[in-house]
Design brief:
single chain, 172 residues, five-stranded mixed sheet, 7 helices, 5 strands, globular
């Protein structure tokens, strides 16, 4: 299977996790960690308005707890429906993940394009290949459905307006 087809397939898995979060009334971020075509773990954001239970963090705890058997040479790829925030991207840099694929950019809090040249040496030499926009329209539809149905006051009152503009297709 070629790389693009695999990215599409793995992102479908992440989108399924995001749909599960949406069904539970939670911000629809889903994440999958894969080694080629093998899924190593999957998770979704849990608990509305919780700043720690991001899909990526839930996934990292699931896969990397206990026996630490992975290395950077293992070709691990993180697939997520939304560009990771600073917490999730920073944690990714500590892990043996060499590739990040996300569906939709986050104009409000995404950190995948952060330039690490001024970062401490440990992080400057941790290259992560990034692919953006894989199945973007499907992710965007999930986020739109969330914004249309959520009862969370932050979102109802227009919180994260750059994110909402991206979802709604309005100029940021």
């Amino acid at each position: 299977m070629d790389r693009l087809a695999n990215d599409e397939l793995m992102m479908a898995e992440a989108l399924a996790e995001a749909a599960g979060a949406l069904e539970a009334g939670v911000f629809p971020v889903g994440a999958v960690l894969a080694q080629g075509t093998q899924v190593l773990g999957r998770a979704r954001k849990t608990m509305a308005s919780n700043h720690l239970n991001h899909a990526e963090m839930n996934l990292f705890h699931q896969v990397f707890i206990g026996d630490y058997r992975f290395a950077r040479a293992d070709g691990l790829t993180l697939y997520t429906t939304l560009e990771p925030c600073v917490m999730c991207f920073g944690t990714l840099l500590h892990l043996p993940i060499t590739r990040l694929v996300f569906a939709m950019e986050d104009a409000y809090g995404g950190c995948a394009s952060v330039i690490l040249t001024g970062a401490p040496p440990r992080h400057q030499h941790r290259p992560v290949e990034i692919a953006a926009g894989v199945r973007r329209s499907e992710a965007r539809a999930l986020f739109a459905a969330f914004l249309d149905t959520t009862s969370e006051s932050f979102w109802r009152e227009g919180g994260a307006s750059p994110f909402q503009a991206t979802v709604r297709g309005e100029p940021g």
